[in-house]
Amino acid sequence: MATRGSRLDWLIFLALGFFWGSSYLFIKIGVDHGLEPFTLITFRLLIGLTLLATVVAVAREPLPREPRMYGHLFVMGVVNIAIPFSLITFAEQTVDSSLASVINSAVPLFVIVIAALFLKGETVTVNRLAGLAVGFVGVALLVGVDIADLSSANAVGELALLGATVSYAIGNVYAKAHVHGLRPMIPAVFQVFFGLLVTGALAFLFENPLAVAWVPESLFSVVWLGLLGSGLAYLAYFRILQRWGATRTSMVAYLLPVFGIGLGALVLREPITISTLLGTILVIGGIALVNARWGNRPLISRGTPAAEATAPTSAGRP
Hints:
By secondary structure, the chain is mostly helical. It has one domain. The chain is 73% helix and 2% strand. It has a two-stranded antiparallel sheet with strand order 1-2.
């Protein structure tokens, strides 16, 4: 029989998947109700940072002592927050939220490719090759037809989503190579802080965030994204990470398209096509194969493994 603690862990895990999976819906609602991309991101990160910084201050988490670590955290704020958040929010001006959630769930597939190219000790195994093949066929099904016409708005949006997915993967690999020896909340709060600096500057340069004509839908979307997507989601992530470990916690990637597609269809009446369903199944199947024990035999290895990152790379989700 499951203990009360294990049941609570599963509830928090499902809540984490819901927080991140629903973020695509509320990004769509925000941009559809008058919020420009950088402005939306700036306000949500400001709310999220306020919550996270309060938690760090109350817990008296120690700050990094090495000056160069702040440089690494700035890079993480750019590649794990500013770039992907901007690309996803820009994309959802023309692309369905459900499609955004599925394409973004392919991050683990791109991590395998980038890590194999740039990290020592990363092995290419049978199951990873099989997972990459299956997963990328799914991605091709999702975006192939639209990308064939690069002049279409859908194609530009889908390319932006792919760019965001690659940026998250780069952030994951960069953290594994450079961000070590920190309490997990520290990389989280500094990623959000530096991401806010970048997107806030862009908002004031190219938009007018102080002149937003707020409506209930846009206000609710920003508060939801800030408190849940950029705030409570981190706290849930760290709770599960501490209890379950990194590998099991990474299963949250399977929940993103489930909640993303379901909420998009339920709230926004976004169509669920055969290609969307099949592509989603293949992407999830590819991620499952990448993490499977079957076929976990090295084909190529690049020496000594890199140290494990302490940065919450998965928590960069929108």
